[in-house]
């Protein structure tokens, strides 16, 4: 295997998955790249907005990371690499980071990129409206701009995790002159983005596609190679698979292809597959309990639900082997850093249903004449049919302990509003990506400071634990790895005991691509990074 084909340290979840998914087949082009052509990628579902700086839904970055860029990108080992920052230095005390910026970069509207745009993007956009900002940038006090090509970050305390959080999908750099004096979500560029990336926004035909056109003035010489990218929206799973199998589409990542179809598509001679490109995803399928509801405010009920679920059944029958059971809020991909532990309350015990029913009795919810103890709604994740299949299984599983579960499916915008703005839900069925560090993608789901009405994919559960807040705050600042690991171990034990949600499965995503599409996965962020070097054989 060549250096460029090396899987990242987080690429694969298990040897079983390794056995079923081949290496990234488009990492070493057989011949010189060809310029031109249109790449068609499937994005599912259609984004409700392209305001990636304010909304963290996973169907937005495949489009917006072609348009926006971050200060940094990352190699396969998640080591920082230059992007809009060409170099950087960190002070000895870790409290000052000085970025030297790329010269000669212009935004798609012709405005020059300067340190003023970096300052504005972090202090006025990311810290105020980015779902990750208040956690990732908690230590960032100010950004100085001593000259147009220098940005100096001043931190209250060292924040080593910050350097793995500066890609376009986490904190995109926006054009200050476009946003200044406006409300970010109401700004016209929210759905007509203006960035510095290799592709420019062209057209959004609602319900059909988004067209991105080659940036002829891109600052990287000779790039991009493609003329344009079409992001197609195809609601039906069978039609999405057919588009790939017939060659109408070239690329589909995350859950755009149903897990049930993957093995069949791997046998198609025109298609390839890879599990690379998910190096900082650490995706976990979870349930969120609305602890504002009196019945779900009882820990016994929440724990009973956790015991009722057979996670291995979900892996085998819903994910078709592309994943493994989860044990808590941190994915096992954090084992290499020492942060993960499975020494927590375990719900996968032989007598789990007996325990669950006993807990429901102790919580004061006896079975009625029809065997039902309570009725709840489950909000179905709108990002793919497998989540509906999972919901159907959960209805059966919870029925075993006397919970009548009603499944509710809605369009993405309505689902997000119900669960993260109106708090009008009982149980939500999202998944989240932990990122390259727990601070990046885990803290915001559990710390009380991340209870932010109207912000998606944060702590909507109303989970408030002073101990968890203290431990995670300390882990944010701790620079000694062993001590930081113990802080996370203790936090995991408390969270699993409290069970503000149920951690179901660590999901292994598989990208399906047409073999004519070359060099599409050359960074650990995969489809959450630009296809600037991708090209099509003709």
TrEMBL record:
GO biological process, one term: peptide transport
Keyword terms, alphabetized: Signal
Solute-binding protein family domain ranges (all copies): 80-427
A molecular function (GO) term: peptide transmembrane transporter activity
The protein's name: ABC transporter substrate-binding protein
Main location: periplasm
Keyword Kinase: no
Localisation: Periplasm
Source organism per UniProt: Plastoroseomonas arctica
Superkingdom of the organism of origin: Bacteria
Gene3D superfamilies, A to Z: Dipeptide-binding Protein, Domain 3, Periplasmic binding protein-like II
Gene Ontology terms: cellular component: ATP-binding cassette (ABC) transporter complex; outer membrane-bounded periplasmic space
Family from the record: Belongs to the bacterial solute-binding protein 5 family.
């Amino acid at each position: 295997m060549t250096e460029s084909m090396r899987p990242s340290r987080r690429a694969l979840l298990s040897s079983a998955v390794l056995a079923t998914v081949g290496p990234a087949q488009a990492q070493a082009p057989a011949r010189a790249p060809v310029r031109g052509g249109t790449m068609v990628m499937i994005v599912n579902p259609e984004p409700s907005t392209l305001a990636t700086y304010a909304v963290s839904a996973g169907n937005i970055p495949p489009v917006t990371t072609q348009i926006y860029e971050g200060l940094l990108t990352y190699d396969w080992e998640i080591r920082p690499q230059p992007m809009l920052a060409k170099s950087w230095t960190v002070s000895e005390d870790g409290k000052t980071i000085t970025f030297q910026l790329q010269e000669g970069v212009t935004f798609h509207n012709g405005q020059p990129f300067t340190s003023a745009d970096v300052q504005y993007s972090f202090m006025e956009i990311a810290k105020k409206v980015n779902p990750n900002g208040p956690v990732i940038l908690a230590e960032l006090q100010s950004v100085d701009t001593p000259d147009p090509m220098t940005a100096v970050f001043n931190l209250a305390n060292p924040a080593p995790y910050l350097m793995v959080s500066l890609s376009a999908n986490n904190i995109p750099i926006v054009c200050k002159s476009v946003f200044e004096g406006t409300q970010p979500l109401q700004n016209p560029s929210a759905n007509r983005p203006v960035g510095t990336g290799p592709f420019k926004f062209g057209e959004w035909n609602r319900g059909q596609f988004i067209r991105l056109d080659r940036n002829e003035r891109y600052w990287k010489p000779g790039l991009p190679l493609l003329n344009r990218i079409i992001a197609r929206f195809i609601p039906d799973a069978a039609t999405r698979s057919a588009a790939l199998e017939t060659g109408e589409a070239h690329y589909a990542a995350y859950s755009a292809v149903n897990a049930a179809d993957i093995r069949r598509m791997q046998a198609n001679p025109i298609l390839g597959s890879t599990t690379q490109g998910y190096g900082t995803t650490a995706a976990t399928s979870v349930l969120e309990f609305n602890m504002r509801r009196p019945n779900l405010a009882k820990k016994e009920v929440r724990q009973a639900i956790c015991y009722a679920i057979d996670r291995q059944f979900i892996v085998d029958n819903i994910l078709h082997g592309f994943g493994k059971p989860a044990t808590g809020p941190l994915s096992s991909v954090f084992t290499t850093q020492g942060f993960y532990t499975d020494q927590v309350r375990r719900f996968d015990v032989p007598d789990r249903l007996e325990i669950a029913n006993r807990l429901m009795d102790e919580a004061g919810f006896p079975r009625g004449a029809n065997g039902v103890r309570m009725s709840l709604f489950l909000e179905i994740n709108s990002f793919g049919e497998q989540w509906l299949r999972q919901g159907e299984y959960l209805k059966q599983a919870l029925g075993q302990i006397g919970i009548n579960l009603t499944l509710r499916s809605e369009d993405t915008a309505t689902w997000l509003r119900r669960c993260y703005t109106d708090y009008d839900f009982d149980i939500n069925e999202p998944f989240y990506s932990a990122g390259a560090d727990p601070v990046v993608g885990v803290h915001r789901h559990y710390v009380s400071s991340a209870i932010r009405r109207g912000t998606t994919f944060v702590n909507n559960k109303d989970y408030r634990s002073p101990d968890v807040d203290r431990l995670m705050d300390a882990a944010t600042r701790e620079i000694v790895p062993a001590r930081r690991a113990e802080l996370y171990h203790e936090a995991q034990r408390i969270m699993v005991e409290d069970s503000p949600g149920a951690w179901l499965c660590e999901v292994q995503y598989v990208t399906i691509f047409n073999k004519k599409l070359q060099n599409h996965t050359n960074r650990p962020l995969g489809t959450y990074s630009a296809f600037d070097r991708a090209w099509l054989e003709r």
